[in-house]
UniProtKB/TrEMBL annotation:
<keyword id="KW-0472">Membrane</keyword>
<dbReference type="GO" id="GO:0072657">
    <property type="term" value="P:protein localization to membrane"/>
</dbReference>
<feature type="transmembrane region" description="Helical">
    <location>
        <begin position="362"/>
        <end position="383"/>
    </location>
</feature>
<dbReference type="GO" id="GO:0005737">
    <property type="term" value="C:cytoplasm"/>
</dbReference>
<dbReference type="GO" id="GO:0007034">
    <property type="term" value="P:vacuolar transport"/>
</dbReference>
<dbReference type="InterPro" id="IPR004240">
    <property type="entry name" value="EMP70"/>
</dbReference>
<feature type="transmembrane region" description="Helical">
    <location>
        <begin position="435"/>
        <end position="456"/>
    </location>
</feature>
<keyword id="KW-0812">Transmembrane</keyword>
<dbReference type="GO" id="GO:0016020">
    <property type="term" value="C:membrane"/>
</dbReference>
<feature type="transmembrane region" description="Helical">
    <location>
        <begin position="266"/>
        <end position="288"/>
    </location>
</feature>
<keyword id="KW-0732">Signal</keyword>
<feature type="signal peptide">
    <location>
        <begin position="1"/>
        <end position="20"/>
    </location>
</feature>
<comment type="similarity">
    <text>Belongs to the nonaspanin (TM9SF) (TC 9.A.2) family.</text>
</comment>
<feature type="transmembrane region" description="Helical">
    <location>
        <begin position="558"/>
        <end position="577"/>
    </location>
</feature>
<feature type="transmembrane region" description="Helical">
    <location>
        <begin position="518"/>
        <end position="546"/>
    </location>
</feature>
<dbReference type="Pfam" id="PF02990">
    <property type="entry name" value="EMP70"/>
</dbReference>
<keyword id="KW-1133">Transmembrane helix</keyword>
Length: 628
């Protein structure tokens, strides 16, 4: 009882949280009666209903679809970099919609589909592809009811290309669209003006060809099946109705900002917060009590006896700062990881404060890109200081690797996936101009900033270690299996992953399922929890490692911190096996390409958190003991 009250009270909180994400992006457009409203078409994307069948988007004017084209050919609309990166390709269309003019069964054009393209279209219908129109900046949507909360919302996933559910294995093409435009009347002017506040599109299939007549009959009862054996002729038709609405223009996006299952978000968040809070508290207590006991004992022994007897982590005080192998790679990874952490934090803050308006398409990707470009200096600075702390003396190769290694890896993965998309003639491929723009951003801004950051870091130099390193390395006694690098990374990754995986499910669904994601408040808190858990588990593990007289902690701390990447990848495989049923090889390659990229990013982010947290914890630990 109490808990359900608590939950409903908390879910009320999601409302301001959700509407806080709204920011009026573009100025409202006032239409006079009869004024033309532009209809733009975007790519066709697979819809996430129960399962997702594909990850490839197709251009609306792909020749194989035979959609009606505007006179003079479609015209590309200007888009932001982020919008293009996220797969938008927005073009003009031949639809004629005039403000306040209802129309019924208007013919768009007569389309003819040869048999080989009929198969292509039927396959896309079976894969649940959806069409995406953009009318006055609003995505076309269907009104849906959230079965869990009973709320009505607008699902901006688009509307179905066809229907393959009424009769299984007999896909019918939706060739008629009932378009409902909700408008709001602006009073107080000499002539009335209207604003568009909602766009609903309900598609249906109708074999509207009437023999002996050259106008379509949209109310015929036969569905339209495209034959894969003969040539097909049919009409594309549409009806438009203007429906008055009392939604003010400023709130027209609210119906789209639907947070699916807010209770689950809250529940998972509270759950992980409680677990994590408890953990952090436990770890802090255990560490604090043992260590302070250790410290007072060590210091007491030093005072009372001549023969000093060390054990546990204190034994390795002469070893902890012994330089690790491959400081070059470690510092490059820590530098780039910190760069990514900064990028995530700032982007999430932007999202949290509502600067990423949904009316500004692709703003999330744009902000990510800008943050990534500008924080190039962070990677240089951190890498340089880490490298000199690790005793590296070849600063030139280190500078070059910090600047180019990670971008090259990421660009190559994305480039390969892009090539793959181009060969499979899908439209998700990033156009050449966009690639060039990103390369220029990197080369002209990010890379120079990284170099500047590097020199700034060199000026600050290395961190001073609190204890000196002995000249002869100690023998390392045998230790339990779980303190070896790989098992400890896998074990250490469980908690951070466990704290984040419910939110991850929603992120994956919106990323691959083309479903808008607005729960940035949850995402921000989840990220915070992830950072805290990663840092604590790594420090705890490293403490155990040191207690077992194993002093090679540098690489271990990075691996343990990055251990959640292992679970992320495993989870990605599970998600693929249970939630997706990707039909084409291209989709599978695309999915695993992106999954690998996320895993890599997670590894760098987690690893850097682990390394940095451990480094400062160890400095703190060893500066508190007296060493003679
Ligand atoms: C258009 O049609 C809708 C219902 O289909 C009706 O409510 C509305 O008044 C009509 N508008 C005009 C301008 O005729």
């Amino acid at each position: 009882m109490l808990s359900s009250n608590l939950l409903s009270a908390l879910s009320l909180l999601t409302l301001p949280l959700a509407s806080a994400f709204y920011l009026p992006g573009t100025a409202p457009r006032d239409y006079h009666e009869g004024e033309k409203i532009d209809v733009f078409v975007n790519t066709l994307t697979p819809m996430l209903n129960s399962k997702l069948h594909s990850l490839i988007s197709h251009d609306y004017y792909d020749d194989r679809f035979h959609f009606c084209q505007p006179a003079g050919g479609p015209v590309k609309q200007p888009e932001s970099l982020g919008s293009i990166l996220f797969g938008d390709r927005i073009l003009t269309s031949p639809y004629e919609i005039n403000m306040m003019e209802n129309s019924t069964c208007k013919s768009l054009c007569q389309s003819s589909v040869p048999k080989e393209d009929a198969k292509f279209i039927n396959d896309r219908i079976k894969e649940d592809y959806g069409l995406n129109f953009i009318i006055d900046g609003l995505p076309s949507s269907e009104m849906k009811r959230d079965l869990k909360t009973n709320e009505i919302f607008l699902d901006a996933q688009g509307f179905n290309l066809g229907d393959d559910e009424t009769i299984p294995d007999k896909p019918a093409l939706n060739n008629h669209y009932d378009i409902f435009i909700q408008y709001h009347t602006k009073e107080g002017y000499s002539s009335k003006q209207y604003r568009v506040v909602g766009v609903l599109v309900y598609p249906r299939t109708v074999n509207s060809m009437v023999s002996g007549s050259n106008s379509p009959d949209c109310f015929a009862t036969q569905p339209l099946y495209l034959s894969e054996a003969t040539h097909n002729e049919f009409y594309y038709t549409y009806s438009v109705s203007f429906i008055p609405s009392d939604i003010p223009w400023g709130l027209r996006w609210d119906a789209y900002l639907h947070v699916f299952d807010p209770k689950i978000h809250w529940f998972s968040l509270i759950n992980s917060l409680v677990i994590v809070g408890f953990l952090v508290f436990m770890v802090a207590m255990v560490l604090y009590r043992t260590i302070s006991k250790d410290i007072s004992r060590y210091n007491a022994i030093d005072l009372s006896e001549d023969v000093q007897e060390d054990y546990g982590w204190k034994l390795v005080h002469g070893e902890v700062f012994r330089l690790p192998p491959r400081p070059m790679v470690l510092s490059v990874m820590v530098g780039n990881g910190t760069h990514l952490i900064m990028m995530c934090i700032v982007t999430l803050l932007f999202a949290l404060f509502g600067f990423l308006s949904p009316s500004n398409r692709g703003s999330l990707a744009t902000v990510l890109l800008i943050c990534w470009t500008l924080f190039g200096c962070v990677s240089g600075y951190v890498s340089s200081r880490t490298y000199s702390t690790l005793g590296g003396d070849q600063w030139k190769p280190n500078l070059i690797l910090t600047t180019i290694l990670f971008p090259i890896v990421v660009f190559s993965i994305i480039g390969l996936l892009n090539l793959f998309l181009i060969f499979s003639s899908a439209s998700g491929a990033v156009p050449f101009g966009t690639i060039l723009a990103i390369l220029l951003l990197w080369f002209l801004i990010s890379a120079p900033l990284c170099v500047a950051g590097y020199f700034f870091g060199m000026k600050h130099g290395s961190f001073k270690n609190p204890v000196s390193t002995s000249s002869i390395p100690r023998q390392i006694p045998p230790k339990p299996w779980y303190l070896n690098p790989f098992p400890s990374a896998v074990l250490g990754g469980i908690l951070p992953f466990g704290a984040a995986f419910v939110e991850l499910y929603f992120v994956l669904s919106s990323l691959f399922g083309n479903r808008a994601y607005y729960a940035f408040g949850f995402l921000f808190l989840t990220f915070t929890v992830f950072v805290l858990t990663t840092a604590t588990t790594t420090v705890l593990f490293t403490y155990f490692v040191l207690c077992s007289e194993e002093y090679r902690w540098h690489w271990r701390s990075f691996l343990i911190g990055g251990g959640s990447a292992f679970w992320l990848f495993t989870y990605g495989i599970w998600y693929w096996a249970s939630r997706l049923s990707l039909d084409s090889f291209t989709s599978v390659v695309l999915y695993f390409g992106y999954l690998f990229l996320f895993t890599l990013l997670d590894f760098l982010i987690g690893g850097s958190i682990g390394y940095i947290a451990t480094y400062f914890a160890i400095r703190r630990l060893y500066s508190s003991i007296r060493v003679d």
